[in-house]
């Protein structure tokens, strides 16, 4: 099945994910921005995606330029990432519910203990899939 990648670029770290076209998440990770090209190339070799959906936020233009130089065959679609961080926090708590005393505090009052950039990447790719693949 065809795969698609999602990228939430940032100054020091990026959220990165690979999904099947049916929306199933195959892999997601927070990567270092300095390793962007290497990480994307390795994932592309493993999963065979030809399209990457990139959020238009922090350092998007720089990430786009770097990937275009390193992987000229990769199709990159830049999309609006409005409200994805809020959605990613909710997705994080669904995937990793609070434990111990933290479960007593509403998750809306908590900050995830780790970056959620990879969840943003999943959301960006999922949005693109829903808007462009009507099966």
Structure, briefly:
This protein is 38% helix and 24% strand. It has 135 residues and is of the alpha/beta class.
**Count of folded domains:** 1
What is the β-strand count?
5
N-to-C SSE string, H for helix and E for strand: EEEHEHEHH
What gyration radius follows from the Cα positions, in whole Å? 15 Å
Quickly give the structural class. alpha/beta
Q: Share of helix among residues?
A: 25-40%
Mean pLDDT: 95
Strand order, biggest sheet? 3-2-1-4-5
> Can you identify the CATH superfamily?
YqgF/RNase H-like domain
Can you summarize the main beta sheet?
5 strands, mixed
Distance between the termini: 13 Å
Strand share of the residues?
15-25%
Low-confidence stretches: none
Q: Given this structure, which CATH class is correct?
A: Alpha Beta
Task: Quickly give the CATH architecture.
Answer: 2-Layer Sandwich
What are the SSEs and their pairings?
Elements: E1 3-8, E2 13-20, E3 25-32, H1 36-47, E4 51-55, H2 60-70, E5 75-79, H3 84-95, H4 117-132
Parallel strand pairs: 1-4, 4-5
Antiparallel strand pairs: 1-2, 2-3
Helix pairs in contact: 1-2, 3-4
Provide key terms for this protein:
alpha/beta; Nucleotidyltransferase, domain 5
How does this structure look, described?
The chain is an alpha/beta fold. It has one domain (3-132): YqgF/RNase H-like domain (Nucleotidyltransferase, domain 5). Helix content is 38%, strand content 24%. It is built from four helices and five strands; from the N terminus they run βββαβαβαα. It has helices at residues 36-47, 60-70, 84-95, 117-132; strands at 3-8, 13-20, 25-32, 51-55, 75-79. Strands 3-2-1-4-5 form a five-stranded mixed sheet. Helix 1 (36-47) packs across helix 2 and helix 3 (84-95) packs across helix 4. The two termini are 13 Å apart. The model has no long low-confidence stretch (mean pLDDT 95).
């Amino acid at each position: 099945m065809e795969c698609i990648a999602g990228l939430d670029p940032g100054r020091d770290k990026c959220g990165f994910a690979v999904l099947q076209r049916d929306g199933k998440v195959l892999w997601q990770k927070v990567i270092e921005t300095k390793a962007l090209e290497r990480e994307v190339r390795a994932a592309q070799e493993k999963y065979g995606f030809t399209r990457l959906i990139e959020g238009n936020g922090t350092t998007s233009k720089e990430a786009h330029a770097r990937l275009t130089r390193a992987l000229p065959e990769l199709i990159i679609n830049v999309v609006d990432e409005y409200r994805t961080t809020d959605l990613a926090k909710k997705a994080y708590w669904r995937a990793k519910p609070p434990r111990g005393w933290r479960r007593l505090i509403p998750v809306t009052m908590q900050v995830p203990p780790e970056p959620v950039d990879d969840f943003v990447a999943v959301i960006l790719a999922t949005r693109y899939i829903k808007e462009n693949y009507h099966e």
